[in-house]
Write a structure and sequence with these properties.
256 residues; alpha+beta; Phage tail protein beta-alpha-beta fold; 2 domains; 7-stranded mixed sheet; 3-stranded antiparallel sheet; 14 strands; globular
Length: 256
């Protein structure tokens, strides 16, 4: 998929993206079926985070960010099996996540150890997808979906879209254009379109970056692009079982 096609798909996909977010909070009758955010409690030296979401692992990461300020990028695997998908309303499908509880010691928790424990605990649960915790060059962390169920109910390894090695000519563009170009190249090489959806548009349009590389991981190129904003931006790469598209949401951390 070329850059121009990526722009068109991005515009056409926004209504579907809005619908995706609305239906994630509804059941077939239109009543709320998931928690808006995870519930955090702390008793007897133990922190307990109770999530209830189509993507409970992401919801726990959001809770950890709220409590400790840990900024962690999150990437869905592909949810393509009936085992990993449920109907949230009469005409939409979402990942078949639900309740998930994570507990850890409240005594000066270490970010890396806690995140490792979280991912390991999640992978042992019955919720959809399997994930890996990845360290970044700047000391941060990515939680990356690496497997999902097949139609036979078996766990099957998947290639994460941002693991793809890209070759891009060095070109100075706005950061919005650069991220869109990265998404377009990932889409061209993979089986799913990757669309830049939610983002701090003003910052991405006002800042420019000269970026390219030969066989560089898409995730690294994305991280360098966002770093050129001189702000703290993290991402959520969400797979929509309905359209089979990935939606890249970028969020600005305020006050950092």
């Amino acid at each position: 998929m070329g850059w121009n096609e990526a722009i068109k798909l991005r515009s056409a996909s926004l209504p579907a993206l809005c619908l995706l977010y609305v239906t994630c909070a509804l059941d077939a009758s239109g009543a709320a079926s998931y928690a808006k955010e995870a519930v955090i409690t702390e008793t007897a030296g133990t922190v307990r985070i109770a999530a209830d979401s189509p993507r409970p692992l992401e919801q726990v990461l959001n809770a950890l960010q709220s409590k400790y300020g840990w900024i962690v990028n999150y990437e869905d695997p592909q949810y393509v099996s009936a085992v990993d998908v449920i109907k949230a309303s009469s005409d939409s499908q979402v990942p078949s996540g639900g309740s998930f509880t994570f507990e850890f010691s409240s005594a000066a928790p270490d970010e890396g150890k806690t995140l490792r424990q979280l991912v390991d605990t999640y992978n042992k649960s019955k919720n959809p997808g399997h994930f890996e915790l990845r360290h970044t060059a700047d000391g941060g962390f990515n939680v990356v979906g690496t497997a999902g169920h097949s139609d036979k109910g078996e766990i099957v390894e998947q290639q994460a879209p941002f693991d793809l090695a890209l070759t891009l000519s060095n070109k100075e563009q706005t950061i919005d254009e650069t991220v869109t170009r990265i998404c377009a190249e990932v889409s061209r090489q993979s089986r799913s379109n990757v669309v830049l959806a939610i983002s701090p548009r003003k910052i991405l349009f006002q800042n420019r970056v000269a970026l390219g590389g030969n066989k560089v991981a898409a995730r690294e190129l994305l991280s360098k692009s966002l770093g050129a904003t001189h702000g703290k931006i993290y991402w959520r790469l969400l797979f929509d079982p309905e359209s089979k598209n990935y939606y890249l949401n970028l969020h600005l951390v305020h006050g950092v």
